Amino acid sequence: MKVCTIIGARPQFVKSAPVARAFQNCAGVEEVIIHTGQHFDSNMSDVFFDELGIPKPRYNLGISNVGHGAMTGRMLEGLETVFLEEKPDWVLVFGDTNSTIAGALAASKLHIKVAHVEAGLRSFNRKMPEEINRILTDHCSDLLFTPTETATRNLENEGIPASKVLEVGDVMQDAAHLFGDLADQSNTLAGDLSIDAGGFILATVHRQENTDDPMRLRAIVEGLSLVAEEIPIVLPLHPRTRGKLEQAGVKLGSGIRCVEPIGYLDMLALERKAALIVTDSGGVQKEAYFQGVPCVTLRDETEWTELVETGWNRLCPPSSGADIVKAVRAALGTTGDDVALYGTGNVSQVIAEKIASFYG
Ligand code: UDP
Q1: Residue 117 DSSP SS3
Q2: What are the b/e assignments for 106-138, b being 16+ CB within 10 Å?
Q3: Mean of the per-residue pLDDT values for the chain?
Q4: Which end of the chain is more exposed for a tag (fewer CB within 10 A), N or C?
């Protein structure tokens, strides 16, 4: 049985790593990895393959740096050609990027079965490109692996038959467990940055709704710069955000230790040591909770509502620097409820075995 796994963006490398390991334990399953090329810099792509032992992609479509329409269109065309060549039994897609929808759509038009990991997430904000990608991907998938009860309910509310849905928990939790010890052993970044455990905030910003809105971007920079006068902030800067800051001529405050995007092991190690995480990332919100670190999310809403409900995360729409300072001060030193929100581990094995169960 052949499974073609489509990945292209940083969070998909992290999500696919434990699943690829699990497939290696499933007799009779051949996984062929296809990289769309959406993220291509060595620190946004190669480092994840090296550190996480993800098998080398058989194909790299090299599609990046174009608008949403052109990117999705070219991916559709490229993936269709690969699928016709490889003739997979299943196509596996992760999350909510252009690579996700292109993989799902190309496969379903060729009547190839589609499995979607991280199905059912909704922000209910259709201005987000990710929201459109998720909805469409879910509706052309044959097997939908949901991370939470809320996600399962969202699918039910949209009329997706329960027989296609399997609530498994979150694969990113598997990744954090699998690589946590390695991250602790190998990490030197905190030392290089001269920061002490518990004595800094880790921040990431990359969502289009924040980077492409000059008012929000300025509010975020102002808020983080003010916070960094009280406690250092480490900011691994996403290329999109760097570009937008340069374009707008916005400078970061001197207390912000701005670094290039870092590898997953460095990221895990910093997350573990941080006093607080400030982010607009979907994955990083959850990773804060995995590491028992409070989180402030710079967005109007989140798909991971259970993190807010249990006190691990608080939303702070970035409308002013002062609001961000207030939210950070309120969140520092807090913890949330002691509950297992994303399953009990082994999610990747369950996913791989479920797909493998269709073999023969
Ligand atoms: N990440 C990383 N290095 C960084 C920033 C993020 O390894 O400099 C990891 C992070 O730990 C998480 C994933 O990238 O596993 C999240 O990706 P991102 O924030 O780009 O996307 P999102 O989760 O918002 O879709």
Answers
A1: strand
A2: bbbeeebbbbbbbbbbbbeeeebbbbebbbebb
A3: 96
A4: C
Active-site residue flag, 206: yes
CATH code (residue 264): 3.40.50.2000
Phi first, then psi, for residue 44 (nearest 5°) are -110, -10
Ligand 1 neighbours (beta carbon < 6 A) = 10-11, 14, 204, 206, 236, 261-264, 267, 281-284, 287
The number of distinct structural domains making up the chain is 2
What CA–CA distance (Å, rounded) separates 215 from 193?
Answer: 30
pTM over 0.90: yes
Asked if pLDDT for residue 360 goes beyond 80, the answer is no
**249-265 pLDDT tens trace:** 999 999 999 999 999 99
- CA-closest residue to ligand 1 atom 19: 281
Same structural domain for residues 152 and 187?
no
The domain in which residue 116 lies consists of 2-170+344-356
Domain annotation covers residue 336: no
Q: What is the widest separation between alpha-carbon atoms in the chain?
A: 62
> Is 95 within a domain?
yes
143 and 235 in a single domain? The answer is no
